[in-house]
What we know:
- The protein is of the alpha/beta class.
- It folds into 2 domains: 169 residues, Rossmann fold; 183 residues, Dehydroquinate synthase-like - alpha domain (Dehydroquinate synthase-like, alpha domain, Up-down Bundle).
- It has a 6-stranded parallel beta sheet, with helices on both faces. Strands 6-7 form a two-stranded antiparallel ribbon.
- A hairpin with a 5-residue loop joins β6 and β7.
Amino acid sequence: MNQFILNSYMPAKIISGHDCVKKNAAVFKGFGNKCLLVTGASGAKKSGALDDVINTLVACDISYVIFDSVSQNPLAEECRLAGLLAVKENVDFIVGIGGGSALDASKAVAIFAANPTFTVSDLYNRAIPANRLPLVLIGTTAGTGSEVTGVSVLTDMKGFKKSISGADCYADVSFCDAKYTHSASYDVTVSTALDAYAHALESFFAETSNDLSALYAEKALKLLWKNLNILRTNKKQPISDLQRNELYVASLYAGLAINITGTAFPHTAGYILTEIYNVPHGKACTAFHPQLMDKAEKYRPEKLEAVCAWFDTNKDGINEVIRDLTALTIHITDEQAKEYCSRWTSSVKNFDRTPGGYTPDEAVVGLLAFRETE
Length: 374
């Protein structure tokens, strides 16, 4: 008898739809009378989300302080400093506005704000979920899925990207309004769409996949494949509102999928490309996807067959599209690749989730595949 597995945990309340922030002002009032707004330098403002939130807070007589110094790859230390600012200003809750960097940072800020003696090491090493301030998230890009996951990716004191996760890393409420993604540039839209695609495909192939995660991944992949092909062929055309909306919905479905399964090796291996070569996160992940497709062909052929059927192409056709959108070459030697990958000396959960497993030696091969030829 077939056994259906639907295990899932996602405690964040999702409020979606056009103008959902302004239409649900009472939600903010329920968290207190003062908040810290956590954003990057420009995305929250450019998208219109920051103005919507500020106007809503003012209408509710809620005061606010702004921390707008979140880096593109947020530093755990800057999150600690933002947490101390929240303590100094005696805020009641945190509101994160932006793409994945701002949302991930806000999760850490909420923890630091409730634990002012925490060091960065304490954040990474906490054995149990920590106390945190109430947290509201508002996404402005279609890719991260951080609105619906209990994970935050930060850069540690050594310059390495590392994730934290747990019940304390979920938002209390996530406002999901696709209109905030409409100001994203073509390049940002492609990279974030590739991030969502990486989430969905890695989740679908993952050893931890179950019936519910597979449903979320399928919904995401069908929308993403359609729109990635449009982005690939219409590079000089404006991105339509329909495309923006579909990409954002897909990013949430993909986030719900990885919230159950986690990601596979491309997300971990891709950190090197971002840390050292400044490759945008989405492209850094999908750069390794041809390797993932080889793994799926060998260890999960029935799942690869399903994906090819959804996309109406074969493995080579999928790889061609992803390689074209990723378009990655780097200067790297054999010795550098081995040194970069030497950090993975013990079990890596993302490697273990991969069909057939994944090793540091395979990561070296993956990195060298991007080497620029003379």
